[in-house]
């Protein structure tokens, strides 16, 4: 999907070509291209991860990704953005999500890239299932546990 501002927004079951996406946002007026390459790691929750599976409500995911691009453009002075997210089964080391943002200056590119990935992870209806030797668990949408305050920690903060 290409938006009105010529941004590239992709949901795919095929491997993501990060180099091609990064090159697609580069133009002569750009002084910076910032990228984020999220890849499948081999561990989670203290266990060895075998592989991941991603599912999405695709029409809404694409619409939300386009909204993120529009909001990013209202906040940052950038030229182009490309964002891609894999769906289906991913093996260890494969790219699951990729973002590239070009701008005249590095600060705008870096800040916009971070905004895109943080907002995508929080708002786009894409779900991750982690597979381990002893079973599987849906991962996204969870709130990280916060350790309970111990008396020594509380006393130190008083």
Task: List descriptors.
158 residues; alpha+beta; Aldehyde Oxidoreductase, domain 3; five-stranded antiparallel beta sheet; four-stranded mixed beta sheet
Helix and strand layout, with pairings?
Layout: E1 8-12, H1 18-25, E2 32-39, E3 43-44, E4 47-56, H2 58-75, E5 80-86, E6 88-91, E7 95-103, H3 106-123, E8 126-132, E9 135-138, H4 151-157
Parallel strand pairs: 1-5
Antiparallel strand pairs: 2-7, 3-4, 4-6, 4-8, 5-7, 8-9
Helix pairs in contact: 2-3
Put the structure in a nutshell.
The chain is an alpha+beta fold. The chain has four helices and nine strands; from the N terminus they run βαβββαβββαββα. The chain has a single domain (8-139), classed as Molybdopterin biosynthesis MoaE subunit (Aldehyde Oxidoreductase, domain 3, Alpha-Beta Complex), CATH 3.90.1170.
Describe the structure.
The chain is α+β, with helices and mostly antiparallel strands and 158 residues long. It has one domain (8-139): Molybdopterin biosynthesis MoaE subunit (Aldehyde Oxidoreductase, domain 3), CATH 3.90.1170.40. Helix content is 32%, strand content 35%. The chain has helices at residues 18-25, 58-75, 106-123, 151-157; strands at residues 8-12, 32-39, 43-44, 47-56, 80-86, 88-91, 95-103, 126-132, 135-138. Strands 3, 4, 6, 8 and 9 form a five-stranded antiparallel beta sheet that branches. Strands 1-5-7-2 form a four-stranded mixed beta sheet, with helices on both faces. Strand 8 (126-132) and strand 9 form a beta hairpin. It is elongated, with a radius of gyration of 18 Å. Residues 142-158 have low confidence and may be disordered.
């Amino acid at each position: 999907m290409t938006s009105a501002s010529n941004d590239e927004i992709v949901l795919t079951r095929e491997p993501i070509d990060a180099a091609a996406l990064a090159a697609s946002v580069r133009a002569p007026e750009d002084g910076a291209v910032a990228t984020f390459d999220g890849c499948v790691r081999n561990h989670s929750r203290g266990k060895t991860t075998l592989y991941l599976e991603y599912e999405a409500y695709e029409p809404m995911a694409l619409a939300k990704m386009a909204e993120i691009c529009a909001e990013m453009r209202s906040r940052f002075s950038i030229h182009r953005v490309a964002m891609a997210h894999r769906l289906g089964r991913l093996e260890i080391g494969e790219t699951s999500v990729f973002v590239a943002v070009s701008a005249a200056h590095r600060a705008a590119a870096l800040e916009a890239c971070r905004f895109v990935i943080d907002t995508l992870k929080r708002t786009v209806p894409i779900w991750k299932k982690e597979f381990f030797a002893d079973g599987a668990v849906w991962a996204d949408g969870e709130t990280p546990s916060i350790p309970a305050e111990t008396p020594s920690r509380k006393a130190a903060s008083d």
